[in-house]
Amino acid sequence: MSLVSEKIKAYKDEIGRYGDFLPGITEAYHAFTGASLGDGELDAKTKQLIALGIALSTNNEICTFYHAEEAKSKGATDAEILETVAVASAALAGNALSQGVTRVQQALSSPPVQ
After folding, report:
1. Which domain holds residue 9?
2. Distance separating alpha carbons of residues 96 and 114, to the nearest angstrom
3. Are residues 6 and 55 in the same domain?
4. Residue 57: CATH number of its domain
5. How many CB atoms lie within 10 A of CB 7?
């Protein structure tokens, strides 16, 4: 079993154990994510690619593995998945830059706190 498969299996095992204690919450979570990630105005493949980008931006290892696998199972090509990585990287870089040119420059131009 690969590292990716092991990590996804461990998550699934643990969410199952969590569901033993709080079944209503776990069932509601699965219903919500299932409905959100299914075909709608956006197809399921596109939604998995979006989820992958978010997983990368939050540094969530399990979700990164899971959504890359799910995107592939929904028909995403390796090129589409790797392009998603580039888009997430650009968005994250843009976030750092936008905060740098606004908040940091405001902080630099403000008098020091005494």
Report:
1. 1-37
2. 27
3. no
4. 1.20.1290.10
5. 16
pLDDT of amino acid 1 = 79
Return the exposure string of 81-107: e unless at least 16 CB atoms fall within 10 Å of the residue's CB, then b.
beebeeebeeeeeeeeeeeeeeeeeee
Distance between CA atoms of residues 48 and 65, nearest Å = 11
Please indicate, yes or no, whether residues 14 and 31 belong to a single structural domain of this protein.
yes
Tokens of 98: 């936008």
Q: How many domains does the structure of the chain reveal?
A: 2
Instruction: Go through the chain and tell me how many residues it has.
Output: 114
Proportion of the chain above pLDDT 70, given as a percent: 100
- Asked if residue 106 and residue 57 are part of one domain, the reply reads yes
pTM, rounded to two decimals: 0.85
Three-state SS letters, the chain: CCHHHHHHHHHHHHHHHHHHHCHHHHHHHHHHHHHHHCCCCCCHHHHHHHHHHHHHHCCCHHHHHHHHHHHHHCCCCHHHHHHHHHHHHHHHHHHHHHHHHHHHHHHHHCCCCC
